[in-house]
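From the methods appendix. Each design record in this collection lists the tokenized structure first, followed by the designed amino acid sequence. Records were kept in a plain field format so they could be parsed without special tools. The example shown here is representative of the layout used throughout.

RECORD:
FOLD TOKENS (191 positions):
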């Protein structure tokens, strides 16, 4: 059997669900508060959420028996989880769920960018499964940048990654407001 012989079920797309005014206000307050809470290179209240999926990615990708993929697996899973959840909400037409997961996807870029920019300096406190905080553990991005000969560009790549995060989060807020207006306009038009 070839991969091309596999039949996948057809996706049943649901129509987008309308967004009420209180929902839009509440989510916008949450998103703006989240953006406002960021301090340059500081910790953030959502970092713990991303850290859980990041650390789970390392043992998950260790089954590939490829060290580079195992090290990158933390970041890969950290980005995959909110992206997959956003896709699931898109298929279901759940507007606010899509926006939340897209926001969390881009939110992960902030911590990833900070971690990338720390590759040479290595001043961030690191966490690792099975290691105490005072044990010497490896720095994912030092290893990945060394392997790709990009270590001297860690700060630029990290700052660019953070910029993607901020722009993506702002775009998500704008998308949610645009969807509210579009869906309200569609409902106002008589059939």
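DESIGN:
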């Amino acid at each position: 059997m070839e991969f091309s012989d596999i039949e996948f079920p057809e996706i049943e797309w649901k129509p987008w669900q309308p967004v009420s005014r209180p929902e839009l206000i509440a989510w916008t307050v949450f998103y703006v508060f989240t953006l406002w809470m960021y301090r340059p290179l500081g910790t953030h209240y959502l970092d713990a959420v991303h850290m859980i999926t990041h650390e789970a990615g390392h043992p998950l990708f260790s089954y590939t028996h490829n060290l580079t993929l195992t090290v990158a697996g933390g970041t890969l899973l950290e980005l995959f989880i909110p992206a997959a959840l956003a896709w699931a909400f898109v298929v279901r037409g759940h507007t606010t769920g899509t926006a939340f997961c897209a926001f969390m996807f881009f939110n992960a870029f902030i911590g990833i960018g900070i971690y990338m920019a720390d590759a040479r300096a290595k001043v961030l406190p690191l966490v690792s499964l099975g290691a105490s905080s005072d044990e010497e553990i490896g720095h994912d991005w030092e290893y990945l940048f060394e392997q790709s000969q990009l270590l001297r560009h860690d700060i630029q790549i990290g700052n660019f990654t953070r910029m993607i995060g901020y722009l993506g989060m702002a775009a998500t807020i704008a998308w949610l407001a645009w969807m509210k207006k579009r869906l309200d306009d569609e409902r106002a038009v008589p059939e």
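APPENDIX NOTE: The two ends are 48 Å apart (CA to CA).
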